[in-house]
């Protein structure tokens, strides 16, 4: 299974009900079924329904993830201090849109009835947990770990690892390199430009 499918199986394995579950593993189960139903629903095979499907899946993702934490953790401490409060908000929004543009269309095109097994839940503290799962595709098994924390009585995802590779660390390496030579405003502009470019490519292929 391609990496894009892995990333977005991760991304929509929680929803609004994620916030209400008392245990992180419990929080992942029911929303996962909701996301899979959206992907498998024959109604969305109609090209005219694809935009609606995208937005429904993205709504699930936005409720499941703490994108403020995800975005800020892609920056090293020194670089975070260089961002103004307004730039932090702009960066978070731009990074979320970037992830959406890069992976969402790939998910919709490449999903092949994958399934997920929930393996274990490790409570690191009262408010942090690691939930380990296994994605079952046709040809292989892919371990995926979710780092979650409880904020304002909600369990939210702030990092994921696919086969041991952290989403946050992957982008932190890239962003640190950029910020060693450019400003926070430059990085935000880069993300916005890449999002625009990706949307243009997606429009051509549709």
Please, could you describe this protein's structure?
This protein is an alpha+beta fold and 206 residues long. The chain has a five-stranded antiparallel sheet with strand order 1-2-3-4-5. Helix 2 (24-40) packs antiparallel against helix 3 (50-64) and helix 6 (85-110) runs parallel beside helix 8 (184-205). The protein is 56% helix and 19% strand. It has a single domain (3-205), classed as Tgt2/MlaC (Nuclear Transport Factor 2, Chain: A, Roll), CATH 3.10.450.
Main traits of this protein?
alpha+beta; 5-stranded antiparallel β-sheet; 19% strand
Rough shape? globular
- List low-pLDDT spans: none
- Give the oligomer, counting copies of the same chain as homo and different chains as hetero: single chain
Derived from helix and strand composition plus strand pairing, the structural class reads: alpha+beta
Q: Strand share of the residues?
A: 15-25%
List the strand order in the largest sheet: 1-2-3-4-5
Task: Offer a quick outline of the entry.
By secondary structure, the chain is α+β, with helices and mostly antiparallel strands. It is built from 8 helices and 5 strands. Strand 1 and strand 2 form a beta hairpin.
List the helices and strands and how they pair.
Elements: H1 3-11, H2 24-40, H3 50-64, H4 67-73, H5 77-82, H6 85-110, E1 115-123, E2 128-136, E3 141-151, E4 154-162, E5 165-166, H7 167-179, H8 184-205
Antiparallel strand pairs: 1-2, 2-3, 3-4, 4-5
């Amino acid at each position: 299974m391609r990496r894009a499918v892995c990333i977005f199986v991760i991304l929509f394995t929680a929803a609004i009900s994620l916030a209400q579950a008392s245990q992180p593993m419990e929080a992942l189960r029911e929303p996962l079924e909701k996301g899979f139903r959206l992907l498998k629903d024959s109604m969305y095979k109609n090209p005219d329904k694809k935009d609606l499907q995208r937005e429904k899946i993205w709504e699930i993702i936005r409720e499941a993830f703490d994108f403020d934490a995800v975005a800020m953790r892609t920056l090293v401490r020194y670089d975070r201090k260089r961002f103004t409060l307004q730039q932090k908000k702009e960066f978070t929004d731009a990074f979320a849109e970037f992830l959406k543009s890069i992976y969402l269309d790939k998910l919709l095109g490449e999903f092949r009835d994958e399934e997920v097994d929930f393996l274990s839940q490790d409570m690191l503290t009262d408010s942090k947990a690691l939930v380990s799962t296994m994605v079952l595709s046709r040809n292989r098994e892919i371990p995926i770990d979710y780092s979650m924390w409880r904020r304002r009585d909600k369990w939210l995802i702030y990092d994921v690892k696919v086969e041991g590779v952290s989403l946050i660390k992957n982008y932190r390496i890239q962003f640190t390199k950029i910020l060693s030579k450019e400003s926070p405003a430059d990085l935000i502009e880069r993300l916005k430009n890449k999002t625009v470019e990706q949307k243009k490519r997606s429009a051509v292929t549709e």
